[in-house]
Amino acid sequence: MSDEVMLAIADVCRRAAAGDLEARLPSVGETDAAIECRTALNDLLDVIDAFVREAGAASAAAAEGRFHRRFLTPGMRGRFRSAASQISDSIDEMFRSAERLAAATDARLALADELEHAVLRVSEQVATAATEMGASANGLADFARTAVTEAEHGMETVHSLRTAADQILTAVDLINQVAKQTRLLALNATIEAARAGEAGLGFSVVAGEVKTLADETSGSSGEIMGQVTKVQDAAAGAVHVLETVTESIREMSGLTNGIATAIEGSHDMDGLSQLAEVLRSEVSRFVETARQS
């Protein structure tokens, strides 16, 4: 071949290597060798052009999710056909992976929905329970405070009863002293009446009656002292019981106040309702992120 033909072939090859797959060798002569060379080179460029175009079209379709678009193999032979089959197999695997990914995405979204519904339901139940428990705890705390107040009033009443009993004992002791002095006076009067003889008989009868009255008064005073002693003992027992009950109620009041604080929260601690809202907010944010992933 002439240098001119060789330069033409080199120019077409350089253009094809640069990516210009539309470059073709023009007629370089009418000899059999020239025609064969031109036909062979242009056929090669046609096959390369078709392979590149089909590979690009099939890849672009797969990237858009149109996996039904296959690599068209008519005219492909040898390694071109093998490479085309590998590209089609890769597209099939991409299709299966896309299906698995879609199934995983659907499962993730379904799980996110279930989690959101479950958390919303739980947070609502917790908030409702917290409200009810808070009301109950506050009511119990109010009851405990009222019970402590009433128990303290009861202790004051019992202490007043013990004080009254002490005063009664003092009065009864005074009565006993008066009765004792009365018996002595009645005895002296009886002795003097006996000395007076007939003239003192009436006075002697009166003195006897006074002595009898003093004895009865002394006996009644003894019974009163016994009853008052029993009242004092009962009052002492009641004070002990009331003190124990009051202390227990105070402890219960402290516990219920702690429960109410835990439920309703304080300046440095969230309550159950706030925690339920935080839980719902955090899970909603997590679910939204999971849906967008």
TrEMBL record:
<keyword id="KW-0807">Transducer</keyword>
<dbReference type="InterPro" id="IPR004089">
    <property type="entry name" value="MCPsignal_dom"/>
</dbReference>
<dbReference type="Pfam" id="PF00015">
    <property type="entry name" value="MCPsignal"/>
</dbReference>
<protein>
    <recommendedName>
        <fullName>Methyl-accepting transducer domain-containing protein</fullName>
    </recommendedName>
</protein>
<feature type="domain" description="Methyl-accepting transducer">
    <location>
        <begin position="76"/>
        <end position="293"/>
    </location>
</feature>
